[in-house]
Structures are given as structure tokens and as C-alpha cells.
Amino acid sequence: MVVLDYQPSPSLHRPQSETFSDSPFWDNSPASTLALFEDAPNVQAHSREKISYYFPKGVGEYHYGMLHPMKPARLTLTNRLVLGYGLHEKMECYTPRSATREELEEFHDQEYVEFLSTVTPSTVPNASFSRFNFADDCPIFEGMYDFCRSYTGASLAAARKLASGTTDIAINWSGGLHHGKKGEASGFCYINDIVIAILQLLRYHARVLYIDIDIHHGDGVQEAFYNSNRVMTVSFHKYGNDFFPCTGALSEVGMGLGKHFCLNVPLQDGIDDAGYVGLFKSVMERTIETFRPASIVLQCGADSLGLDRLGCFNLSIAAHGECVRFIKSFGLPLLVLGGGGYTIRNVARCWAYETSVLTGTTIPDALPSTPYDDFFQPSRRLHETLGAGRVENQNTKASLEKIRVKIMEELRYLHGAPSVQMQELPPDLAGGWLEEDKVGDERADK
Ligand SMILES: [Zn+2]
């Protein structure tokens, strides 16, 4: 049985020798869900693609505050698992430089960046705090501006590398802060590295597709490109009951030139692997066929996993990773970013697994030994059971099908859209960025 009538397009050729349903991590699934993945794309055992991995030095050492759910330490945990599994041997690893102020201002207001760059934890609160939305969710912590420059520099370096055609896939787990607004902090995000990276890609790519699988709506990225037909945004998220950020309704489809170039997939609590992955593949395959992007940016927020501290979905790491594998299978230049994720042991498991998926490497379920073994007790397994079914699934087959049909209708409008020409490219910020890429991004020691 194929859930949601997902049918692979005959025009998209993917190797079929290995499927997701072969995964030993799918033991608990009912037989009916297995068929869903029979058409899943496959990653060859030894991928020929070139993968670039960006890990800014010290990015995991910042602290939002003891009680704050955003823990940059999850990046250190992730990196340790990536190294422990030997995945760095499959990639070119870079220690990128921090973004400059000018680069942040490619998207953000000058006044906002000025505030961000000068405020400190000891600054006496003033009118700017509320103007720029600095409150509980977005505290001012030690090194905040450097943290922002650090993860943004990595996304930017990754985007440059992709634009130059010298890598097929670029990964920055420290990026993906999708709520940041032009002149306002929001939802633990200060600088929107995604928008800045997409702006860089747009200098060389006619059309860029943005996909967001964080449990929260990718509002900052959607807003930035709401009027654009060169960036299509697609967000899968929980919607309703005042769930943050309260945007992302099915009816939000873009405006002006950007009308029909924005899709939202609003979901309810407790969605399971079969429902999510089935809908994801159906929507994304048609979107990619129709929009024909030159490159894809995939935000992999891990708060859509089961048992997330702030989330309410039931996704397994295998299913989350299957979405990544599916997008990789299209063979387009791909920028992979992190995002939310608040049960940090599972965030690290998820992103390490997805690094293996992207490099086409099979890794064992037993986690490698790292200085952080205690975090992964007692099982020390990669594919930890994430309380499947803990949250009652409020999405029915009928409700998901209704969303799918509406999105297919919306995508039909794109067939009539004028073809997007390469517009005149803006002059590059520093000029000669290819050279800058070589100089500015140190190769990390393996
Ligand atoms: Zn989130």
C-alpha cells in the first residue's frame, strides 16, 4: 500500500539497489509503511560526490544561559560523533572565517546590526531592546555577536563553495537559524544565515529552492523572499494552537512576483514517520520538477524528532534522514543546514546520521566512543527509539491528503509562470570571492 498515493516520477532516475525499507532501523514500523519507502532514492555505498563540511572553531562553546533550551554545545556533540564515525575522511573539512559586518548587512538593517555588535549582557535595557525584540527567547549573552558571525560565516563559505561549482554538497550544522528577521531577533535567532547564504547563491543561480523540516515554520526565510520568484520556500511544520511563530498557514503562498513561489505544509501534533515522509516526498518531487531549481538549501531542524524538548512530532532519526536522502537524490547542488533541536543527544545523533547519509556511508548503530559518552547513556545507540507514538497523532490520512491535493493545485500555477531569467548580477561584495574562499576558509586538520 502506498500512503498518500505517492508515485515516483518516471522522469527522475534514481538508483534502486538499496531502499530505506531495508534499513535495520525500521523494525518497529507496521508492514504497511514499508512500501512507502520502496521508491526511496539510494545513496551509493561510496558516493562520488564531493562533500564539504564546515565547522566554525569554538561555535559549540557559546551559552544562551543555563535555563535556555538552545544549547550550542549540541554542535560539539554532533561534531564528535561525525569524527568518531570517521565521516570526516569522506569530506573536505573547513574551519570557516566569521562573516563580516558588511556580509550581515547584505540582509539585515544597519541599525539592527549596530545594536547586535555593541550590546553586552551588562548593557542597561533601553528602548532598543524591545524595538529589536531582545527578551526571554532572545537573550543577550556573552559573545552573542561573535556567535552570529561564526555560524553565518560558515553558511556563507558553504554557499560560495557551491556557487563556485567546486563542491556538490556543503554542510553547516551550526547554521539554519530561520526565524531571524531583517531588523529583529526572533525565536533564538539573531542573524538569518540562511537568507544571507541564499542571497549569495542567487548571484550565480537563477532559482534557489529552500526546504525547511524544522518543527517551526521557516518564517524569516519565507518573509525575506515572499515577493520573489527566484526563491521558492517550502516549510513543513506544526501549525495551530498558538504554536510559535503562528505563521505558515496553507494559504500563505507568496505575493506579487512571488505569488505561488511559497508553499506551507501545516501539520498537527504527533505526526508519524509514514505520514510525514510520504507527504514530504510527494510535495518535494513535484516542486523540484516544476520549479527546476539550480540549487537547494535544506534546513534540517531536529526539533521535529520525537521526544524533542520543545517539539510534539513523533519522527524517528531514520525518517528525518530519509527526507535528507530524498533531496540529495536529485543530484542538485545542496546546502545542508541545522536549525532547531532541543533534546541535544538526539540532535547530535540525527545530524551525525544525516552526515553519513550525505556522504553515502553506512555507519553502525553503536555510537563511537567520544568524551561525551555519558550524554548517550544508557543505550549508546544511534537510532534510539524516540518514543514513537508518545504524542497522539492528530493528523489523519484524510487531513494529509487534503493538504497534498491543495499543494498540487498550487503547484499547477507554476507551470504558467514566466521562465525566470538570470537577472543582472549584483557586483560581489569583496570582488574575487573565489580567491577569498581559498584564503578565508582554512582547511581543517583531519
Ligand atoms: Zn524549531
What does this structure look like?
- By secondary structure, the protein is of the alpha/beta class.
- The chain has a single domain (3-7, 48-418), classed as Arginase, Chain A.
- 32% of the residues lie in helices and 9% in strands.
- The protein is built from 13 helices and 9 strands.
- The protein has helices at residues 31-34, 73-84, 101-104, 110-118, 127-131, 144-163, 193-202, 219-224, 273-291, 317-328, 344-359, 397-415, 433-440, and strands spanning 51-54, 92-95, 169-172, 208-212, 231-238, 262-267, 295-299, 334-337, 442-443.
- The structure holds zinc ion (ZN).
- Zinc ion is lined by residues 214-216, 301, 303, 339-340.
- Zinc ion (ZN) is lined by residues 214-216, 301, 303, 339-340.
Instruction: Give the number of domains.
Output: 1
| Largest sheet report | 9 strands, mixed
Separate helix tally: 13
For the record, give the distance between the C-alpha atoms at the N and C termini, rounded to a whole number.
46 Å
Mean pLDDT, all residues: 87
Number of DSSP strands? Answer: 9
Which parts are unreliable, with pLDDT below 50 for 5 consecutive residues or more?
1-46, 422-440
Rg (C-alpha, Å): 20 Å
Proportion of residues in β-strands: 5-15%
Q: What is the name of the CATH architecture?
A: 3-Layer(aba) Sandwich
Proportion of residues in helical segments: 25-40%
CATH superfamily: Histone deacetylase domain
What would CATH call the class?
Alpha Beta
* Structural shape: globular
CATH topology: Arginase, Chain A
Name every ligand kind in the structure.
Answer: zinc ion
Q: Which series of helices and strands comes N to C?
A: HEHEHHHHEHEHEEHEHEHHHE
